[in-house]
Specification:
mainly alpha, 86 residues
């Protein structure tokens, strides 16, 4: 059986699940990846999707809010952008 568990850094899963592979991800390092993803998704939505009538200043504001509110969490953006996600 394979099991994937995530938690905030305050919870020490490694202590509970010893002898397991532990990967630590710093949310600050994900910022550039999230920004690139947000930009590409907004670009798609603004060229042929629901945001195609939006002004560039509104698109920039949407990008900033999504990137800021994601707080380094990719899933947070997907949930906010795509209500059918997950």
């Amino acid at each position: 059986m394979k099991l994937f568990i995530t938690s905030p850094p305050e919870i020490d899963l490694a202590a509970t699940f010893n002898n397991c592979l532990t990967i630590y991800v710093d949310r600050n390092t994900l910022g550039a990846d999230i920004e690139m993803f947000v930009n590409s998704q907004i670009e798609k939505a603004s060229t042929s999707g629901p945001l195609s009538i939006a002004e560039p200043t509104l698109l920039d504001a949407i990008k900033q809010v999504l990137i800021t509110k994601a707080e380094g969490m990719y899933v947070a953006f997907c949930i906010r952008y795509d209500p059918n996600y997950g």
